[in-house]
Amino acid sequence: MASIQWTDDFDMACHQAGQDEKLVLLDFFSPT
Amino acid sequence: MSAVTYSDAQVIATITARFVPVQINTQEAAGLPLVQRFYQVWTPDLRVISPDGVDLYHWNGYLPPAEFVPQLLVAQAQALLRLHDEPGAAAVYREVLERFPTSAVAPEAQYFAAVAAYKHSHQAPDLLDTWRRLQTQYPTSIWRVKQSFTEQG
Lengths: 32, 153
Prior knowledge:
Chain A is α+β, with helices and mostly antiparallel strands. Chain A has one helix at 10-20, and one strand at residues 23-29. Chain A is globular. Chain B has a two-stranded antiparallel ribbon. By secondary structure, chain B is mainly α. Classes of the chains: A alpha+beta, B mainly alpha. Chains A and B meet through α1 and β1 of A and α1, β1, β2 and α3 of B.
Protein backbone atom coordinates (compact mmCIF):
# COMPACT_ATOMS: atom_id res chain seq x y z
CA MET A 1 0.00 0.00 0.00
CA ALA A 2 1.27 3.49 -0.84
CA SER A 3 2.16 5.88 1.93
CA ILE A 4 2.94 9.58 2.24
CA GLN A 5 6.59 10.27 1.48
CA TRP A 6 7.36 12.74 4.25
CA THR A 7 10.64 14.60 4.50
CA ASP A 8 12.03 16.61 7.42
CA ASP A 9 14.10 18.82 5.12
CA PHE A 10 12.05 22.00 4.84
CA ASP A 11 14.40 23.90 2.54
CA MET A 12 14.66 20.99 0.13
CA ALA A 13 10.86 20.64 0.15
CA CYS A 14 10.42 24.31 -0.76
CA HIS A 15 12.90 23.94 -3.60
CA GLN A 16 11.13 20.81 -4.82
CA ALA A 17 7.74 22.52 -4.63
CA GLY A 18 9.00 25.34 -6.81
CA GLN A 19 10.31 22.90 -9.39
CA ASP A 20 7.15 20.76 -9.41
CA GLU A 21 4.69 23.69 -9.26
CA LYS A 22 3.32 22.35 -5.99
CA LEU A 23 2.93 23.75 -2.50
CA VAL A 24 4.57 22.55 0.70
CA LEU A 25 2.37 20.84 3.30
CA LEU A 26 4.06 21.36 6.67
CA ASP A 27 2.86 19.13 9.51
CA PHE A 28 4.09 19.96 13.01
CA PHE A 29 3.49 16.92 15.20
CA SER A 30 4.33 15.64 18.64
CA PRO A 31 4.59 11.86 19.13
CA THR A 32 2.55 10.79 22.13
CA MET B 1 -3.27 11.54 12.64
CA SER B 2 -0.90 8.90 11.29
CA ALA B 3 -3.01 5.95 12.47
CA VAL B 4 -6.20 7.02 10.71
CA THR B 5 -5.98 10.11 8.54
CA TYR B 6 -2.54 9.61 7.00
CA SER B 7 -3.33 5.96 6.28
CA ASP B 8 -6.41 6.79 4.21
CA ALA B 9 -6.03 6.24 0.48
CA GLN B 10 -7.80 9.47 -0.51
CA VAL B 11 -5.66 11.50 1.89
CA ILE B 12 -2.48 9.89 0.56
CA ALA B 13 -3.51 10.54 -3.05
CA THR B 14 -4.46 14.17 -2.37
CA ILE B 15 -1.24 15.01 -0.55
CA THR B 16 0.95 13.21 -3.06
CA ALA B 17 -0.62 14.86 -6.09
CA ARG B 18 -0.65 18.44 -4.82
CA PHE B 19 2.01 18.93 -2.13
CA VAL B 20 5.57 18.25 -1.08
CA PRO B 21 4.93 16.93 2.46
CA VAL B 22 7.15 17.87 5.40
CA GLN B 23 6.81 16.54 8.95
CA ILE B 24 8.53 18.25 11.87
CA ASN B 25 8.70 16.60 15.28
CA THR B 26 8.17 19.47 17.72
CA GLN B 27 9.75 17.46 20.55
CA GLU B 28 13.14 17.24 18.87
CA ALA B 29 15.81 19.93 18.91
CA ALA B 30 16.17 19.73 15.14
CA GLY B 31 12.61 21.03 14.78
CA LEU B 32 13.11 24.08 16.99
CA PRO B 33 14.14 26.57 14.26
CA LEU B 34 10.90 25.92 12.32
CA VAL B 35 8.81 25.89 15.52
CA GLN B 36 10.17 29.34 16.32
CA ARG B 37 10.01 30.64 12.75
CA PHE B 38 6.30 29.78 12.41
CA TYR B 39 5.34 30.61 16.04
CA GLN B 40 4.06 27.06 16.41
CA VAL B 41 2.22 26.34 19.69
CA TRP B 42 -0.07 23.31 19.38
CA THR B 43 -0.28 20.08 17.45
CA PRO B 44 -1.59 18.88 15.09
CA ASP B 45 -0.58 22.04 13.23
CA LEU B 46 -0.90 21.92 9.43
CA ARG B 47 0.38 24.65 7.14
CA VAL B 48 0.39 25.24 3.42
CA ILE B 49 3.62 26.99 2.51
CA SER B 50 4.66 28.68 -0.73
CA PRO B 51 7.89 27.60 -2.45
CA ASP B 52 9.54 30.73 -1.03
CA GLY B 53 8.65 29.68 2.50
CA VAL B 54 5.62 31.84 3.31
CA ASP B 55 2.73 30.48 5.40
CA LEU B 56 -0.38 30.89 3.21
CA TYR B 57 -2.95 28.91 5.24
CA HIS B 58 -2.93 26.96 8.47
CA TRP B 59 -5.14 25.10 10.88
CA ASN B 60 -4.92 23.16 14.13
CA GLY B 61 -6.54 19.97 15.32
CA TYR B 62 -7.20 16.39 14.32
CA LEU B 63 -9.53 15.79 11.40
CA PRO B 64 -10.79 12.42 10.14
CA PRO B 65 -10.25 11.72 6.42
CA ALA B 66 -13.75 12.85 5.39
CA GLU B 67 -13.01 16.35 6.73
CA PHE B 68 -9.25 16.38 6.20
CA VAL B 69 -9.41 16.09 2.41
CA PRO B 70 -11.80 19.04 1.88
CA GLN B 71 -9.81 21.06 4.43
CA LEU B 72 -6.67 20.29 2.48
CA LEU B 73 -8.32 21.41 -0.77
CA VAL B 74 -9.57 24.65 0.78
CA ALA B 75 -6.05 25.28 2.05
CA GLN B 76 -4.62 24.69 -1.42
CA ALA B 77 -7.25 26.95 -3.00
CA GLN B 78 -6.58 29.76 -0.53
CA ALA B 79 -2.85 29.47 -1.17
CA LEU B 80 -3.43 29.69 -4.93
CA LEU B 81 -5.67 32.73 -4.42
CA ARG B 82 -3.01 34.48 -2.34
CA LEU B 83 -0.47 33.67 -5.04
CA HIS B 84 -2.83 35.38 -7.56
CA ASP B 85 -3.73 32.19 -9.43
CA GLU B 86 -7.42 33.07 -9.35
CA PRO B 87 -8.58 30.53 -11.99
CA GLY B 88 -6.65 27.77 -10.21
CA ALA B 89 -8.13 28.76 -6.87
CA ALA B 90 -11.66 28.92 -8.28
CA ALA B 91 -11.30 25.44 -9.77
CA VAL B 92 -10.22 23.91 -6.46
CA TYR B 93 -12.99 25.69 -4.55
CA ARG B 94 -15.51 24.33 -7.07
CA GLU B 95 -14.02 20.87 -6.57
CA VAL B 96 -14.68 21.16 -2.82
CA LEU B 97 -18.29 22.19 -3.44
CA GLU B 98 -18.87 19.37 -5.90
CA ARG B 99 -17.12 16.57 -3.99
CA PHE B 100 -17.70 17.65 -0.38
CA PRO B 101 -20.82 19.87 -0.26
CA THR B 102 -21.66 18.86 3.32
CA SER B 103 -18.14 19.20 4.74
CA ALA B 104 -17.40 21.74 7.47
CA VAL B 105 -15.29 23.85 5.11
CA ALA B 106 -17.83 23.93 2.25
CA PRO B 107 -19.25 27.35 3.28
CA GLU B 108 -15.72 28.79 3.27
CA ALA B 109 -15.24 27.30 -0.19
CA GLN B 110 -18.51 28.87 -1.35
CA TYR B 111 -17.46 32.28 -0.01
CA PHE B 112 -14.02 32.25 -1.61
CA ALA B 113 -15.18 30.62 -4.85
CA ALA B 114 -17.04 33.88 -5.37
CA VAL B 115 -14.00 35.95 -4.44
CA ALA B 116 -11.72 34.00 -6.78
CA ALA B 117 -14.18 34.29 -9.68
CA TYR B 118 -14.63 38.03 -9.10
CA LYS B 119 -10.91 38.72 -8.74
CA HIS B 120 -10.45 37.10 -12.14
CA SER B 121 -13.44 38.58 -14.03
CA HIS B 122 -14.08 41.83 -12.15
CA GLN B 123 -17.76 41.21 -12.87
CA ALA B 124 -19.98 41.93 -9.85
CA PRO B 125 -22.44 39.07 -10.53
CA ASP B 126 -19.59 36.57 -10.17
CA LEU B 127 -19.24 37.74 -6.60
CA LEU B 128 -22.81 38.44 -5.61
CA ASP B 129 -24.56 35.52 -7.30
CA THR B 130 -22.13 33.01 -5.85
CA TRP B 131 -22.29 34.61 -2.40
CA ARG B 132 -26.09 34.41 -2.63
CA ARG B 133 -25.82 30.64 -2.63
CA LEU B 134 -24.54 30.91 0.94
CA GLN B 135 -27.98 32.19 1.90
CA THR B 136 -29.68 29.07 0.55
CA GLN B 137 -27.03 26.36 0.90
CA TYR B 138 -25.34 27.36 4.17
CA PRO B 139 -27.72 29.80 5.90
CA THR B 140 -26.33 29.28 9.43
CA SER B 141 -22.68 29.53 8.46
CA ILE B 142 -20.43 32.35 9.63
CA TRP B 143 -19.47 32.72 5.96
CA ARG B 144 -23.08 33.62 5.17
CA VAL B 145 -22.84 36.28 7.89
CA LYS B 146 -19.65 37.62 6.30
CA GLN B 147 -21.51 38.52 3.13
CA SER B 148 -24.76 39.50 4.86
CA PHE B 149 -24.21 43.21 4.18
CA THR B 150 -25.26 42.37 0.61
CA GLU B 151 -28.66 41.25 1.97
CA GLN B 152 -29.52 44.70 3.37
CA GLY B 153 -32.22 46.72 1.63
